[in-house]
Amino acid sequence: MDRKIKKKVWTAKRIFTILGITGVVALIAYVFFFADKSSKLNVELDKINVAAVTEGAFQEFIPVEGTVNPKTTIYVGALVGGNVEEKFLDGGVEVEKGDTILKLENNNLQMQYVQEQTQTNRLRNDIENTNLSLQQRLFQSKSAIINLDFDIDQAKDAYTRNKQLWEDKVISEQEYLNSKRMYDRLMARRVNEIESAKFDSITAVNTIAQNQERLGTSNVSLKMVENNLNNLWVTARITGLLSTVNPEVGQTVSPGQNIAQIDDLDGFKIVARVDQHYLDRVYLGLRGNFDFGGSNYGLVIRKIFPEINSGQFNVEMMFEGEAPENIRRGQTVPIKLQLSEERQAIMIPRGAFFQTTGGNWIFVVDASGEFAERRKISIGNQNTRQYEVLEGLKPGEQVITSSYDGYEDKDKLIIKK
Asked: For the segment 114-143, what is each residue's pLDDT rounded down to a tens digit?
């Protein structure tokens, strides 16, 4: 009789199958819950730049290019027009104040001077004759009054005598009245002569004053023309370096035209061009410095020209101390324009990473040096060498500062040595 054989529940096949399924499930669970799901990329150590995060004195500055200029430049212009008759000096020589640079000729101006001089002399003669005539009239009036006073004395004596004789019945009344009328007429003439002399005196004073004013005006006109003649000689207004002399012999020069330029050799200034982005941060008294001949020289802004030209504006800087001995007009110097004072800050070196991240994140190297992870940071000010880190990094950490091209979507870099 056949016997029923009982099947085994935990066969080797079933056990291996369950173990396989469990392993697959565990692997899936690990991938979903425990595995590192970050995007990775392998990089070669010798193809990246790694720099340390440091803490120390930080100062924001920007590099600008400055041009050396004389502290004072005088532009010599033509005060009058004319043709260049003779040229005494060319550019590139040192001149003393008053040295003649060139001589102009202007025939019209010379004729005008002769006419003004003739007119002034004629007016002076006319005035002298008029004044002499007035003086003669005054003398004549005084003489007439003197003669009249003599006649009045005689008439008064006759009138007084005849009055007594008439009262004594010695002469007729008609004879007495005639002497009285003669005396009264002479007295009236004297009053009239005195009033006429007063009028002539006032008129003479006014006329002389007017004549003197006319003569003064004429002399001023003559002096102006004479000065214009003197201005035909163009001279150096200061002692310095005559850098340019534009006109040549025979050339016509217009009034106000620039003829020459003289640089004062007593000192120099620096004119620098600054990007318009910094216009609101640049102010009078802002300092800068540059290296020249192995020494560092300080500068300070004394003048700002806010007009924007090609995206830049000009500033004028003066030396805080002595200028370099060998510096020359027209030289260019690289200046560090200091936008802030020194302060303690956390810093990282400048690098190409900034073009990709904008300073919002960076790859921080793990202490093991085997990988670097992406981390959010905040960048503040900067200079030509460093960025100021406001948050996200600590001194002593290592960061990757080279280009992040191809790393934009990666969370971790595996560093291969």
From this structure: 888 888 888 888 778 877 877 887 788 888
Print the SS3 string covering 360-416: CEEEEECCCCCEEEEEECEEEEECCCEEEEEECCCCCCEEECCCCCCCCCCCEEEEE
Instruction: For residue 211, give Cα distances in angstroms to 128, 133, 365, 412.
Output: 9, 13, 100, 103
Structure-token pair, residue 342:
């020194």
Alpha carbons within 13 A on the beta-carbon side of 347: 20
Nearest alpha-carbon partner for 390 in 341, 343, 352: 343
Is the distance from CB of 77 to CB of 237 less than 8 angstroms?
no
Nearest-angstrom CA–CA distance, 386 and 363:
17
Query: For the segment 85-105, what is each residue's pLDDT rounded down to a tens digit?
Result: 998 888 888 888 989 989 999
Alpha carbon distance 234, 58 (integer Å): 55
Whole-structure pTM value: 0.53
SS3 322: coil
> Is residue 395 pLDDT above 60, yes or no?
yes
Bridge partner list, 358 = none
130: its two tokens: 């008029």
CB neighbour list of residue 62: distance below 8 Å, 6 or more residues apart: 274, 275, 278, 336, 337, 339, 383, 384
Report the pLDDT averaged over residues 12-29.
65
* Residue 341, helix vs strand vs coil: coil
